[in-house]
Amino acid sequence: MDLVKIDNEVVVEDEDVMRWITFTGFWGGIYYLLACTSLAVGQREQPVKINIPAASTALGLHLSTFIAGGSLVSASSSLISRKSTTEQAREQIASGQIEQTIVQQALGGAIGSVVPFAIALASMQAAEQITGKKAFDTEQMNWPVAIGTMVALSGVTAFCVSRIAAWVAKDAREGR
Questions:
Q1: For residues 53 and 106, what is the distance between their CA atoms, to the nearest angstrom?
Q2: Which phi and psi angles does 45 have, rounded to 5°?
Q3: 75 vs 159: CA distance, rounded Å
């Protein structure tokens, strides 16, 4: 496997970069879907009107931002810890840390979802500049309902994914 040396002590493998792109792309898509669902729930006027070309353009912008930002955070984590993200994940699995932090991960996902929600909104505004159309009619938005829905959906999603990851980590550690 090819290795790219960051400095004498930190090694980032090609596999790490592929994980960053896959992981951030997956979560970017999930958060965009949750943001769109939250915006649809928060609409005061029914039926909800969505401009598909503008929403699709916003999705592309959102994913690009999420992948670039997430990869930058992962690379920074590797530089700070002096360990590849793969090595960090192996240590978390071996220590049982993943199983011990399910509730914290769910709460973090809920509270932290405000950032991906803001990125989705910014992507939609940029898409409006590009397409000339709004993805959603934000003038008819009940913002507390939309934000509350985003926080609730993200918390439930983070809890479920954390629980699944904990089972997988436990099985991997026990050699099942």
A1: 33
A2: -95, 135
A3: 25
Contact yes or no for 29/76 (Cβ under 8 A): no
Say yes or no to pLDDT of 7 above 80. Answer: no
Note the pLDDT tens digit of each residue in 19-55. 889 999 999 999 999 999 999 999 998 888 899 999 9
User: 132's torsion region: left (phi>0), alpha (psi -120 to 50) or beta?
Assistant: left
Q: Which residues are CB-contacts of 116 (< 8 A; sequence separation ≥ 6)? A: 27, 28, 31, 32, 34, 35, 66, 154
Return d(Cα 25, Cα 108) in angstroms, integer.
Answer: 19
- Residue 88 backbone phi and psi in degrees, to 5: -60, -45
Cβ atoms within 10 Å, residue 151? 19
Cβ-contact 14, 86 below 8 angstroms: no
- Do the beta carbons of residue 152 and residue 110 sit within 8 Å? yes
In the prediction, which pLDDT does 115 show? 95
Is the peptide bond between 116 and the residue preceding it cis, with omega within 30 degrees of 0?
A: no
Give the whole-angstrom CA distance, residue 166 versus residue 96: 8
